[in-house]
Amino acid sequence: MLSLQLISEAAERIQGAIRKTPVDECPILSDLLGVPVWLKLENEQITGSFKARGALFALLKAKDRGDFQVATCSAGNHGKGMAWAARMLGMQVTIFIPNSVDPTKLEGMIRMGADVRTSAFSGYDETEKWALAEATRIGLPFISAFDDELVMAANGGTVAAEVLDQIPDLETLILPVGGGGLSGGASFYIKETRPSCQIVLCQHEESPALKKSIDLGRAVVEMPVIETVAGGLEGGIGRLTFDVLKTRFDSLELLAEPEIKQAMAWVIRHHQMIIEGSAAVVIAACLRKGFRKPKGPTVLVLSGRNVAAATIAQIMHGNPF
Amino acid sequence: MLSLQLISEAAERIQGAIRKTPVDECPILSDLLGVPVWLKLENEQITGSFKARGALFALLKAKDRGDFQVATCSAGNHGKGMAWAARMLGMQVTIFIPNSVDPTKLEGMIRMGADVRTSAFSGYDETEKWALAEATRIGLPFISAFDDELVMAANGGTVAAEVLDQIPDLETLILPVGGGGLSGGASFYIKETRPSCQIVLCQHEESPALKKSIDLGRAVVEMPVIETVAGGLEGGIGRLTFDVLKTRFDSLELLAEPEIKQAMAWVIRHHQMIIEGSAAVVIAACLRKGFRKPKGPTVLVLSGRNVAAATIAQIMHGNPF
User: Fold this and answer.
1) Which residues of B139-152 are buried (b: 16+ CB within 10 A; e: fewer)?
2) Which chain B residues are within 8 Å of A272, Cβ to Cβ?
3) Fewer beta carbons within 10 angstroms: which end of chain A, N or C?
4) Are residues A272 and B307, on separate chains, in Cβ contact within 8 Å?
């Protein structure tokens, strides 16, 4: 069960190996929204995304149980985190990936010694089904990229705990939502420890699994494949994560592909940092004309930076300065 | 006088406000050079460059002396660091800048409340002469961007101390050299505490003040203006910094403009980070065919990330993937 105790345990065990990433002031969004706005720089996390947190904690717990070989499925960042953590812990990880994976992320996983297996599918959901069947066939325990209490505790829980430590008067936390590992763990931690704080979640409008799940009253775990620079936001939500999330957020923003690309270019222009599409949704939401002004200090979680150079080139070309 | 004691004092006083930036593995350069290669990420420093260190220490010392208003001259990063430190300390800083300054850096200084005055000159050296005359006229104490023991101690000294703490078996440190504040302080610290460690300095081939100074046996404090993406490496070297540097480095690499741009694109491609031209010289040096292989663990200091989006767009366009 996800609990504050599990989040504390995660924080304790990943400490040292994981970076306590800084929060940077964002003067332009602060002016725009009329409240102090900060960026939580998980793009500066080791392996380039928050996923290293959950991967390390899940592998530490697997090792506790005596499992030295595990399988997982990942669109990229979770796989990179798993490859990094497995190398550090002397474990072997087999990573099943969609064939649409960003080449930068694939390169990262292979360099760190992971056994990477590419699926016949470009979407995450179909790849995961195949991965689960393959893992069962080979006889390896399977670690979900998001629908797992350990992953939720370490990914979202520890990020939120750091944010509250860095900005104790936090009133609004803005996060991307894909499978729900980051947003689930973070929303849980925030609503348990600072219930007055608002949670704003940001999703891709063409893959709105959370919105659909809320409308239907049950987790939509599969979604049609889409082409997007925000690969981490493509696909269904988890059953466990939806269960945590459904009562723990205050608003949901659905962002379009061009807005996401513009937001990536905006961060390059104003903060001289590369962030991936899945991270850029939080910036895109704040840049919208109709975005509701937060009532106090606000933190945007920039979840990662793993994006192919060709995508950067295309974005800079398409959003001239 | 520059001393280990002054560097310790600098480290102590700037601690907390300044980030202890991480070192990242660089697997590709490690393969290429046959030794473990690490990147010291001063591009992740607050204000986007190492210059925040020296600016803060210099202002703390000015405040100790009872000076609450100071003047300085900067091509950008030092100015941004001074503006940030002055705001934090409740001091007023007047910054004289060349008219060629990167708009991103200018914007940063103004946003932080500095009094910015643009010179009639595009080069650093002429601007500094004017700045010194203006500061005298107005009656403000002048803080040099590099030719100052406090700045050397905090900029280069504290970076080197952190690197040795992070990579205790360091054998080679590779740094950019412009005015000599970073390289002077770092070389001093390294040669005093770990004399076996090699220092490799990297300069722009069109503005080789250190090389000229070595050839002539005296500091060349003025150089002809050049157009470059590596604005921080343009101009002469300091008298104090040359005095420290001249006996404390092992080799000097002169890099050309296209190599520097390629190195910026390389870092975007392989590390998903933006670094400025002045930082990219260290990568460019390692990517050269003839670069002499270091004999052991090597750290490259990535000094900053403040670069205009238009420059990034141009670089990505010119170095396709």
Assistant:
1) ebebbbbbbbbbbb
2) 43, 48, 104, 274, 305-307
3) N
4) yes
A125: tokens are 């959901």
Q: How are beta strands B37-41 and B23-25 bridged, if at all?
A: antiparallel
What residues of chain A lie within 8 A of the CB of B19, using their CB? 22
Q: What's the pLDDT score for residue B143?
A: 94
Q: What pLDDT, in 10s, does the model give residues B158-168?
A: 999 999 999 99
Query: Domain boundary at A143, A164, A182, which?
Result: A143
Distance CA B190, CA B186 (A): 6
Helix, strand and coil content of chain B, in percent to the nearest 5, comes to 50, 15, 35
- Residue B247 belongs to what domain range? 4-49+148-318
Let me know whether B173 and B292 are in one domain: yes
Pairing, β A23-25 against β A37-41: antiparallel
Tell me the CB-side half-sphere exposure of residue A20, using CA atoms within 13 A.
12
What single DSSP character describes residue B153? I
A277 membership: H or E segment, kind and range: helix A277-287
State the residue for tokens 């904690």: A57
CB A53 within 8 A of CB A45: yes
What CATH number is associated with residue B115? 3.40.50.1100
* B88–A contact, CB cutoff 8 A: no
For position B124, what pLDDT does the model report?
A: 83
Q: How far is A152 from chain B (nearest CA, A)?
A: 25
pLDDT at B321: 57
Report H helices in A76-115.
Answer: 77-89, 103-111
Residue B318's pLDDT is: 78
- Whether chain B has a CB inside 8 Å of the CB on A45: the answer is no
This complex has an ipTM of 0.95
- Determine the Cα–Cα distance for residues B120 and A305; give it in Å rounded to an integer: 39
DSSP class of B94: E
Task: State whether B72 and B125 are in the same domain.
Answer: yes
Per the CB < 8 A criterion, the answer to whether B263 and B241 are in contact is no
Asked whether B253 and B201 are in contact (CB, 8 A), the reply is yes
Give the gap in angstroms from C-alpha B110 to the nearest C-alpha of chain A: 11
Q: Which tens digits make up the pLDDT trace of B131-150?
A: 999 999 999 999 998 899 99
Do the strands A37-41 and A298-302 form a parallel or antiparallel pair, or are they unpaired? parallel
Q: How many domains does chain A have?
A: 2
Q: Is the dihedral of CA A209, A297, A284, A19 positive or negative?
A: negative
Which tokens belong to A219?
Answer: 């987790």
- Give the global pTM: 0.95
